[in-house]
Amino acid sequence: MWKTIVRRFLIMIPQLFVLSVIIFVLAKFMPGDPFTGLITPQTDPARIAELTEKAGLNDPVHMQYLRWMGNAFQGDFGLSYTYKRDVGALIGERALNTFWLSLLSVILLYALAIPLGILAGRYQNSRLDKTIVLYSFVTYAIPTFVLALVFLFLFGYQLRWFPTSGSVDIKTQVGTLGYYWDRFYHILLPSITYAILGTTGIIQYLRSEIIDAKSMDYVRTARSKGIPMRKVYSKHIFRNSLLPIAAFLGFTITGLLGGSIFIETIFGYPGMGQLFVSSISSRDYSVITALVMLFGFLALLGSLLSDIIMSIVDPRIRIE
Amino acid sequence: MKKSKWLLFAALFSLLLVLAACSGKEDGTATEEPADTDTEEQAEGAEETTEDSSELFEVSVTNEGEAIEGGILQVGMVKDEPFQGIFNWELYEDAYDSELMSWTSNALFETDGDFMLTDEGIASLDVDQENNKATVKIREGVKWSDGTPLTIEDVILPYHIIGHKDYTGVRYDTQFQNIIGAEEYHAGTAETISGLKKIDDLTLEISFKQLSPSIFYGGDGLWTYAAPVHQVGDIPVAELIESDAVRKNPITLGAFKIDKIVPGESVSYVKNEHYWKGEPKLDGVVVKVVPSSSVSVAIASGDYDLVTSFNATKMEEIQDLENINILGRPELYYSYVGFKVGKFDTTQNKVVTDMENSKMGSQELRQAMGFALDIEQVSEVFYNNLRERANSLIPPVFESFYDGELNGYTYDPEKAEALLDEAGFVDVDGDGIREDQNGEKLEIKLAAMSGDATQEEIIAFYLQNWADVGLNVVLSTGRLIEFNAFYDMVQADDPEIDMFMGAWGTGTNPSPSGLYGEADQYNFSRYTSDVLQSAVVAIDSPESFDTDFRAEQFKIFQEHLEEVATTIPMQFRYEIFPVNKRVKNYNIDYADATEIHEIELVADKPVAN
């Protein structure tokens, strides 16, 4: 298995290389450049030309690519054109924000979806099941921004249960307990919103797996041995039904850094999703390429993780 | 950005936003604290401004009640992304950073209602036109927020930052090169800028190659901010932008100083006890980024005392609220429709006008297209009159130069048709669409920027306006164009473009140079003529130190472009400021804005609706 993992990592190198070429070239194909947005009637075209030249944007694309590659190998992804900061530090800051938000979202998501899925599967066709299925269809149909806005207005502004924007209140002292509590408090409402909207897939998978498992031979065997129904569910059916969910776990883990543009924009939370979208519209090449490379790497890593997880939870699967 | 700043109507022209806001804010900071003007003439001007804007909005508000001791002003800054956080006047790029810095300010000068520098600020300016020299003299006793006295070295430092070869901002430009020795310093052949001469601890003499009236607006290379030598003097210019002195704890001159920053989200300020005009009445200010999707509810909930960069299209959501007053003022902005009548010759760096061979070469055709547009209806229906038909390429805020008597192209389809008939654009094949003067099919390609759904409707409406007078106008590329692509195409004189709709934020210097001169790349319609060029040059010439002469040249410029109609002004717009009833006094008049150290509150918390 270790061999396989090492091999998978080695394969990633050409994959990421191809990705980097594609994204680099495509980014340059976009009209405009990072300086287009700076133009005002007072801006001197000669100065813009000078800055463009200095930034090396007039060089042939392959030259720019090689230069970028050389620096990237040394861990230097350049300066963001928009934020004028080291891309690594900028992404790091946003990634941390996004990581905590996503982590809480995913915890809440599983905490909500797994029990609902189990209940729906176990009590198939009951009123409870129908309610859960209806719930999952409704949340599936609601656009993220609609629910986010409704929750924000209701729980944020009307009831005042949650803060309405940002990642932390500026009044709190960094490093104190109050600061960490406040950060947690700020991500709670966005996380709940995200969790409620994301449940459909898990509920549906779990429900149908459980319904299938109920008629399986091993369940009948367990029952015939006199094992109580409760135990059959918790020991036998549950573990098997989680397989499809485990299959996505790797992607879920690496997806923690992806961020959600809607949630971030509506809750005014500086995260990765926003950074990605805004870097594209402002032609912030260094940020675009670094982010795409990061997301690409995470996707590959996620699929590897998923395979590893599957081999652990399902002994029938062996990575060769 | 802060320049981007860049911001009111997200819907229309998303780039314009950027453009307009940038420039608007860039110089706008200077308007934060204008002083009362001395002369009678200027004072009258100020009153007129008030009347003009009050046609739609109040520019100032006074709320009843006894002022509380201190208090924290809560400010919401509408923005859907984190702010950049470059707190340095030499380096910042977008309007939002400029807005954040306006509370701390390092401005040396104050400005009057015409945006001209006055002697009321920290520094005074004395211009010697004969010898192309200007003398900047700072007040004695002014201190930085850490208590260190301001010296003339602090005034000189910014020039050496901007002029430095490692400086990466846009401000090292031809204007800056107007300072004698700036180019040598930039090239690295001189240690300092030779045109800067320290006279004594409070006085700096600057020598320029050629002065123009722009210097009175802070142009010509004059820099109007100070930088603290004792904080940033030893930081290499290349490292400055990432330093804590710029990102975290800048030392400043204004009424407040930065206390804490949550990157991208909020900034809290405390009062600057060393402020030269006296201790501010507030204890502090907190500015927080508010997403545009929830700003109206936040205002209603009483979360903020002031809201800046409020999107005027959301006016309806807040206009009936009782916990706020809505102030408004005309913006330094105009939108326009331009016609391509030539090319830009990049080898000779000049505009080459070619009316003969341009599809839009007929003056009657261009004029007719202007008369055919029902901009009045668009302003009313889509913008709730927060925009109005523009009659000139100079926004009316610039009272001394704006020509109020211009008719502009008010909606008049009959006149449009008459002009077209007269010029020979008639429908010869009977399909309801006019052919060109030679009887050939005429298809005019319009480039317009993409925005929100409203933008699509508006452009469709304009196309219909033209169809109503028999003109076949289609969209270049078949759809609205994303802003980066739009400017790329317009600037490259793409053959897909016969005409285009854009906008400019003018900044506080109304001079048309840069946009309408014969060597200007941003002269997008590529029109130049002797009359136009002589007016553009004259406006910034030494003769124009005589304001009457300058005004006359502005008049010639506006009238000439109105007549040839290569660029037809479309709309002016208003910016609006919701102010909570907790704020005792607030005034946004360019000529008479509230001084921030005098803001007071009348309650412990903002009033909720």
Description:
The complex is a heterodimer of chains A (320) and B (609). Chain A is mainly α and 320 residues long. Chain A folds into 2 domains: 1-86, no CATH class; 87-284, MetI-like (MetI-like fold), CATH 1.10.3720. Chain A has 13 helices and no strands. In chain A, helix 4 packs across helix 7 (177-214) and helix 7 (177-214) crosses helix 9 (229-241). The longest helix of chain A is centred in the middle third of the chain and has 38 residues, at 177-214. The radius of gyration of chain A is 24 Å and the shape is globular. The model of chain A has no long low-confidence stretch (mean pLDDT 86). Chain B contains 17 helices and 20 strands. Chain B is globular and about 80 Å long. In chain B, the strands form 5 sheets. In chain B, strands 11, 12, 15, 16, 17, 18 and 19 form a 7-stranded mixed beta sheet that branches. In chain B, strands 7-8-9-2-10 form a 5-stranded mixed beta sheet. The longest helix of chain B has 18 residues, at 547-564. Residues 1-54 of chain B have low confidence and may be disordered. Chain B has 609 residues and is of the alpha+beta class. In chain B, helix 1 (14-28) runs parallel beside helix 3 (95-101) and helix 16 (530-539) runs antiparallel to helix 17 (547-564). Chain B has 3 domains: 40-105 and 254-323 and 581-598, D-Maltodextrin-Binding Protein, domain 2 (3-Layer(aba) Sandwich), CATH 3.40.190.10; 123-237, Dipeptide-binding Protein, domain 1 (Alpha-Beta Complex); 333-573, Dipeptide-binding Protein, domain 3 (Roll). Classes of the chains: A mainly alpha (320), B alpha+beta (609). At the A-B interface, helix 2, helix 6 and helix 12 of A face helix 1, strand 7, strand 8, strand 9 and helix 9 of B.
What is the terminal-to-terminal distance of chain A? 6 Å
Query: What is the N-to-C succession of helices and strands of chain A?
Result: HHHHHHHHHHHHH
Domains of chain A (count): 2
> For this structure, what is the CATH class of the largest domain in chain B?
Alpha Beta
How large is the share of residues in beta strands of chain B? 15-25%
Large-scale geometry of chain A:
globular
* C-alpha end-to-end distance of chain B: 33 Å
Protein name (chain B): Peptide/nickel transport system substrate-binding protein
GO molecular function (chain B): peptide transmembrane transporter activity
Keywords (chain B): Signal
Signal peptide (chain B): 1-20
